């Protein structure tokens, strides 16, 4: 069996592990339950993918992020590693097929949303799988102290009883000490377990926060000064498009990305940026998860994040190559007001949430006490219009219902179309002989996509239409014909969110949201809101130190490179004389003095140095200025 270095090199092309990765992997391979606290960009996926390839059976990865699951699955498949994602987007037939394949060992990695873990369909196949390891991504979601608590994560510990010998690896990039302990307790870590924490300090990353009413002017200045790859984070799709177009008009290479784009478009935009064909991506927070691009020089926030956790993750996507990088936030008072407004709207009254939950059941025509595990596509605009609800109120209510384990809500994910052949090769050949008009379409599927007989595959009707010199509408019509004749199972793509009921629809008189739990959730969100406001409005304390203290990394020095540290250095320098600096350094050249003492005009600086030399307080050797030994003794 190859060792972990060989696996890393063969499949990922790396010669060595990043800090912390080897320790985490070796802990798992020693069959030890492990909590890995790694900063954004620390390479968390490697920590379960490498041991997963080393161990003989299958690794189950639990994640709440559907887009990230699909990115991981596609990445593994591109390396020749069989993997599947069991998300709420799958039809019952797709899920049944995938679980059958998983039970017989078809896959090396199975990614699943936590909602799936409690369904009888999943549990019965899970019992029969050869499980080598369970990995829990975004593990902070299991803690009520975490910033994204999801009660459905509490189901994870229950499935351990079916494979008690399999080690569990929990991973997160944002956990305080209290959250870390809560994760270990709630996942029922064995007595012998390890907590491995990476260093969250980013010595190459300069946090720069500026309060300004002239964001566009500042933005142009930053991008003109820093020519490397950049990400600009904004809150809305519309703003992403507007800023990207504005930058393009100014001559910048810019594009936009959000989860509402088609899968084809998202892939094109992402690939062009990764390969440096596009310099700047204007994106919502849907962008960046699972993308390993080390040479991002600048991350810019034109809108405020809701909490330090989100900010730390997004800012941390800059400078993963270890070279100097910048995390810039431009804000003004209106942004603070907007943040406060969003917080106020994030927690609708409990009676309103109850009303929306009832309306959902009626909208889906779902009888009370039924529907557990069922998934529905929802057109939010149509739903709001039908029941006279505000869209933002509905969105936030769905998030709270998700946290209380009534349902799961996958928002803003545009899935690809998928298909699988329901017949074998011989039956397909016979069908083609009897249906000559369908032969070109079937042949395109066979030529373009692999494994369509064994599993569901992602397809792109527009690409197939180009190959057939026809329209996408004609391709879809042909695929529907093949499905009608049971040749294929065809699942057209959707741009709408999906809702899955994680418990049967609760009767109106039994529906309950705990006021205590609701208040606790709101209070913690309020603490995080105040923390992000403190971070951006602070003008005295090192930005990096504030962030690290928030994550319980208290033993740290000032970074020296954030805007506050630079400003403090300049204040200190403004009161320092030329002779002070020369004596402190023990010897320096003119350029070093200019940089350290920017308050001096060049001509004044030269005059001061000449005066010190004439007064025999300094001496000049090989273009450098040194304090006179005798004067040095007198001085100190």
Per CATH, the class of the largest domain reads: Alpha Beta
Q: State the total count of DSSP E strands.
A: 21
Largest sheet: 7 strands, parallel
User: Structural class of the helices, strands and pairings?
Assistant: alpha/beta
Number of structural units classed as domains: 5
CATH superfamily of the largest domain: P-loop containing nucleotide triphosphate hydrolases
Q: Give me the CATH architecture of the largest domain, please.
A: 3-Layer(aba) Sandwich
Q: Would you tell me the overall average pLDDT?
A: 88
Question: Regions with pLDDT < 50 over 5+ consecutive residues?
Answer: none
Q: Proportion of β residues?
A: 15-25%
Strand line-up of the largest beta sheet: 3-4-2-5-6-1-7
Gyration radius over CA: 29 Å
Give the overall shape. Answer: globular
Looking at how many chains there are and whether they match, the oligomeric state comes to single chain
Number of helices: 27
Provide the helix percentage: 40-55%
Summarize the SSE layout with pairings.
Blueprint: H1 4-12, H2 21-29, E1 33-37, H3 44-54, E2 58-62, H4 66-78, E3 83-86, H5 92-103, E4 109-112, H6 120-128, E5 131-136, H7 156-159, E6 168-172, H8 177-186, E7 193-197, E8 205-211, H9 215-225, E9 229-233, H10 237-249, E10 254-257, H11 263-274, E11 280-283, E12 296-301, H12 308-315, E13 325-331, H13 333-345, H14 350-363, E14 375-377, H15 380-387, H16 391-403, E15 407-410, E16 417-421, H17 425-434, H18 439-448, E17 457-459, H19 461-468, H20 472-484, E18 488-491, E19 498-501, H21 515-537, H22 543-550, H23 563-574, H24 578-585, H25 590-596, H26 602-614, E20 618-621, E21 624-627, H27 629-635
Parallel strand pairs: 1-6, 1-7, 2-4, 2-5, 3-4, 5-6, 8-13, 9-11, 9-12, 10-11, 12-13
Antiparallel strand pairs: 14-19, 15-19, 16-17, 16-18, 20-21
Helix pairs in contact: 2-3, 5-6, 13-21, 14-16, 19-20
């Amino acid at each position: 069996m190859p060792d972990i270095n060989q696996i890393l090199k063969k499949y990922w092309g790396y010669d060595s592990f990043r800090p912390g990765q080897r320790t985490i992997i070796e802990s798992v391979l020693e069959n030890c339950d492990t909590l890995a606290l790694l900063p954004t960009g620390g390479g968390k996926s490697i920590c379960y993918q490498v041991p997963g390839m080393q161990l003989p059976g299958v690794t189950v990865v639990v994640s709440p992020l559907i887009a990230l699951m699909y990115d991981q699955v596609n990445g593994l498949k591109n390396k020749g590693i069989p993997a599947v994602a069991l998300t709420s987007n799958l039809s019952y037939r797709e899920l049944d097929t995938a679980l059958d394949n998983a039970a017989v060992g078809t896959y090396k990695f199975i990614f699943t949303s936590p909602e799936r873990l409690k369904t009888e369909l999943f549990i019965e196949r899970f019992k029969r799988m050869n499980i080598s390891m369970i990995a829990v991504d975004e593990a902070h979601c299991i803690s009520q102290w975490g910033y994204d608590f999801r009660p459905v994560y509490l189901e994870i510990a229950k499935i351990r009883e079916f494979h008690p010998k399999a080690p569990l690896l929990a991973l997160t990039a944002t956990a305080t000490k209290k959250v870390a302990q809560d994760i270990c307790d709630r996942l029922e870590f064995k007595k012998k377990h390890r907590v491995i924490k990476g260093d969250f300090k980013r010595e190459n990353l300069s946090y720069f926060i500026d309060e300004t009413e002239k964001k566009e002017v500042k933005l142009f200045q930053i991008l003109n000064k820093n020519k490397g790859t950049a990400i600009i984070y904004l809150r809305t799709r519309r703003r992403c498009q507007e800023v990207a177009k504005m930058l393009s008009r100014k001559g910048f290479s810019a594009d936009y990305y959000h989860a509402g784009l088609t899968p084809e478009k998202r892939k094109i935009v992402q690939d062009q940026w990764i390969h440096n064909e596009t310099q700047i991506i204007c994106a919502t927070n849907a962008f960046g998860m699972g993308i390993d691009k080390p040479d991002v020089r600048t991350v810019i926030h034109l809108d405020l994040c809701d909490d330090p956790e989100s900010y730390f993750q997004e800012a941390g996507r800059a400078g993963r190559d270890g070279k100097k990088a910048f995390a810039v936030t431009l804000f003004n008072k209106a942004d603070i007001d907007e943040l406060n407004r969003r917080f106020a709207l994030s927690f609708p009254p409990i009676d309103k949430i109850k009303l929306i939950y009832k309306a959902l059941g009626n909208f889906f025509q779902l009888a009370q006490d039924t529907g557990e595990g069922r998934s529905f596509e929802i057109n939010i605009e149509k739903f709001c219009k039908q029941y006279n609800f505000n869209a933002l109120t509905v969105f936030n209510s769905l998030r709270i219902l998700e946290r209380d384990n009534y349902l799961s809500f996958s928002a803003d994910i545009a899935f690809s179309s998928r298909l699988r052949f329901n017949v074998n090769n011989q039956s397909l050949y016979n069908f083609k002989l009897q249906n000559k008009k369908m032969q070109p379409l079937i042949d395109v599927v066979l030529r373009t996509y692999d494994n369509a007989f064994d599993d569901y595959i992602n397809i792109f009707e527009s690409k197939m239409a180009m190959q057939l010199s026809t329209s996408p509408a004609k391709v879809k019509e042909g695929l529907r014909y093949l499905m009608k004749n049971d040749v294929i199972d065809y699942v057209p793509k959707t741009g709408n969110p999906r809702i899955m009921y994680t418990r049967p629809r609760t009767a109106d008189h039994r529906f309950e949201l705990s006021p205590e739990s609701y208040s606790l959730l709101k209070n913690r969100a309020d603490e995080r809101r105040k923390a992000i406001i403190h971070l951006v409005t602070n003008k005295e304390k090192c930005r990096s130190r504030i962030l690290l203290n928030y994550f319980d990394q208290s033993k740290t020095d000032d970074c020296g490179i954030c805007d506050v540290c630079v400003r403090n250095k300049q204040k200190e320098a403004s009161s320092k004389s030329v002779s002070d600096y020369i004596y402190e350094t023990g010897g320096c050249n003119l350029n070093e003095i200019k940089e350290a003492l920017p308050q001096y005009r060049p001509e004044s600086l030269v005059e001061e140095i000449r005066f010190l030399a004439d007064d025999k307080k300094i001496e000049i050797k090989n273009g450098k200025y040194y304090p006179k030994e005798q004067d040095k003794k007198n001085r100190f």
